[in-house]
Design brief:
- Helix content is 40%, strand content 15%.
- It contains 25 helices and 19 strands.
- The N and C termini lie far apart (75 Å).
- Bound molecules: thiamine diphosphate (TPP).
- Thiamine diphosphate binds next to helix 3.
Length: 623
């Protein structure tokens, strides 16, 4: 028996449009089952995709994609979209090296109108497309699908604000499931809940609809009448007040109703917002019950659901988590801040133990950083836990609000360096380069768990801005040292082993891979620890008794630390061969972290080869 009789007839949205309307609910069931079975085998984002099955089908059914433009916000919910747009056969390669990306990507498919991964860009991008098409007299539709989590970001509001003043043809679909990765927080979230539960509003809507049915089919008059009905009932809606033509809230799992609504909206020009209510994880009871756990998953058995794996070595995130709780216990001034990444950044325990000092500010990286600056002005000790890639969003706030005023804020920067499966949008390739040029900021790269705690202590004790960056995954020690309150001298590297001829300078956790190699080749091995201030004295000293340097940083080479070391050596007028290893001048491909390390020559066997070549070159008699 064919498992997916309807889905099997669909390779492109044109095929989908041939399916009789009444069969769409059955098609949605097949798509949902297929999505669940696929992600159970590949891992990846699950709960968000399950929640937008009906919406995805309805959009591609009604609109003329890819001629009409469709922009998914964040893009973690776009797996069903990929399955309906020529990629179902390749879903098993999801997030694998050379396989499908976990996010929409322009060069992957003509149906991916905009590359995403970071949130809250969809309205701006769709609006840009709408304006360009309007100027070029093209009449297609432009749709942005944005979650209530992504809607919390300033950027989404900037775009709403701009769109409202234009006549550009844009439809924003607000997918409201009450969840970000964790439960959504803040004023917008409560506002949306109020719209949903407002009996008065629902009443006005249904009565308004009845009135409108009896009016002549003239858009302007119908809108005028609807506005008056709402006004009469005293209901004001934020999006309407902004100037959007608002419809909803609508059941986002009723595919037939969605099709009807989208067909109506398709006929209206100008900025429109459709508010739909969905359930994150819809159709898979375990995900509906625990959407946070099923937001992103590794492979699992559908019957069993996720099982707690064997407690393995702690991740650097867990080391940070423990450090934060221990330090908060000792110091009441500590405040923990996350921009919507409670789980990923390791703040769950802190949020439970110190709720009054825990702030999830929603997806608002810029606000998170300036909020911390304000707290520091009043003598609090804010710790901003943030992913390397998302700190990019708050670069000006880091420079202008924190560093320029030399404020006492500690940044715990997770997912620094090579991240792996999520690819270029989530790679922490740039933070070393973009932070090391900021005056006042102390930038640290721990090599293992114990040192990470010491550097966090050091940054926390330092009266000024400091940043500790650490990668995804586990460390060399395999345990979390407790009760370590030691600090280290700022700006001092640590010589792990003294050798001859070749000096290997390592910034970060790749140090553990270099230890056996340096020992075998009798090379000097240095754990640099500080990117800023850089241990220039140590570099100068090593340049007096070594012929070559190998510099290893898990970050982009352009603008990286290697460049500064070369400059120092150049100023010394020394003839030292300097070899830099790091991320070359490209956006990092996706794949397992180990595969990507190998791609850049940073895996153990490539590192050994490089050291071997450098040592062999050193030993060659000079001609
Ligand atoms: C700038 C930025 N910050 C944080 C994230 C991490 N992130 C990915 S999805 C997500 C939650 C999005 O919630 P919502 O838009 O409501 O979608 P849902 O998962 O609920 O469907 C977050 C915080 C991100 N992708 N981009």
């Amino acid at each position: 028996m064919q498992r997916y009789p309807l889905l099997d007839t669909i390779d492109t949205p044109s095929d989908l449009r041939k399916v009789p309307l009444e069969q769409l609910p059955a098609l949605c069931d097949e798509l949902r089952t297929c999505l669940l079975e696929t992600v159970a085998q590949t891992g990846g984002h699950l709960a968000s995709g399950l929640g937008v099955v009906e919406l995805t089908v309805a959009i591609h059914y009604v609109f003329d994609t890819p001629n009409d433009s469709l922009v998914w916000d964040v893009g973690h919910q776009a797996y069903p979209h990929k399955m309906l747009t020529e990629r179902r056969a390749r879903m098993a390669s999801m997030k694998k090296r050379h396989g499908l990306s976990g996010f929409p990507k322009r060069d992957e498919s003509r149906y991916d109108d905009f590359g995403v991964g970071h949130s809250s860009t969809s309205i701006s991008a769709a609006l840009g497309m709408a304006i360009a098409d309007q100027l070029n007299r093209r009449e297609n539709a432009h749709i942005a699908v944005i979650g209530d989590g992504a809607m919390t970001a300033g950027m989404a509001f900037e775009a709403l604000h701009h769109a409202a003043s234009l006549s550009a043809n844009i439809l924003v679909i607000l997918n409201d499931n009450d969840m970000s990765i964790s439960p959504n927080v803040g004023g917008l979230s409560s506002y949306l809940s109020k719209i949903l539960i407002s009996d008065l509003y629902q009443d006005v809507r249904s009565r308004g609809k009845k009135v409108l049915q009896h009016l002549p089919p003239f858009d302007g008059l119908a809108k005028f009448a609807e506005d008056r009905v709402k006004e009469f009932a005293g209901f004001s809606n934020l999006f309407e007040d902004f100037g959007f033509d608002y419809s909803g809230p609508e059941d986002g799992h009723d595919v037939l109703a969605l099709v009807e609504t989208l067909q109506t909206l398709q006929k209206h020009q100008g900025p429109k917002l459709l508010h739909i209510k969905t359930v994150k994880g819809k159709g898979y009871a375990k995900a509906e019950a625990a959407p946070v756990d099923y937001h992103g998953v590794s492979t699992f058995n559908i019957e069993q659901g996720l099982v707690n794996g064997k407690a393995g070595a702690p991740t650097f995130t867990q080391v940070f988590s423990q450090w934060l709780c221990e330090t908060a216990q000792r110091d009441k001034k500590l405040i923990g801040i996350t921009p919507a990444m409670r789980e990923g950044s390791g703040l769950v325990a802190f949020s439970e133990q110190f709720p009054e000092r825990y702030f999830d500010v929603a997806i608002a990286e810029q606000h998170a950083v300036t909020l911390a600056a304000g707290m520091a002005c009043k003598g609090s000790k804010p710790v901003v836990a943030i992913y390397s890639t998302f700190l990019q969003r708050a670069y000006d706030q880091l420079i202008h609000d924190v560093a320029l005023q030399n404020l006492d804020v500690l940044f715990a920067v997770d997912r620094a360096g090579i991240v792996g499966e999520d690819g270029a949008t989530h790679a922490g390739s740039f933070d070393l380069a973009y932070t090391r040029l900021i005056p006042n900021l102390v930038v640290m790269t721990p090599s293992d768990e114990a040192q990470m705690i010491q550097l966090l202590n050091t940054g926390y004790a330092h009266q000024g801005p400091a940043l500790v960056r650490y990668p995804k995954g586990q460390g060399e020690l395999g345990y979390i040292p407790t009760g370590n309150t030691h600090t280290v001298t700022i700006g001092k590297g640590h010589i792990v082993q003294t050798g001859k001829k070749l000096a290997i300078l390592v910034f970060g956790t790749l140090l553990s891979r270099l230890k056996p190699i340096a020992a075998d080749y009798q090379a000097t091995l240095v754990d640099m620890r500080f990117v800023k201030p850089l241990d220039i004295d140590l570099i100068k000293q090593l340049s007096t008794n070594h012929d070559s340097f190998l510099i290893i940083e898990e970050g982009c080479l352009l603008g990286g630390i290697g460049e500064q070391v070369q400059q120092i050596i150049h100023q010394q007028a020394k003839h030292i061969h300097i070899h830099c290893l790091g991320i070359s001048d490209e956006f990092t491909p996706h794949g397992k972290r180990e595969e990507i390390l190998a791609h850049y020559g940073l895996d153990s066997s490539s590192l050994r080869k490089t050291v071997d070549q450098l040592v062999t070159a050193n030993n060659k008699p000079q001609s």
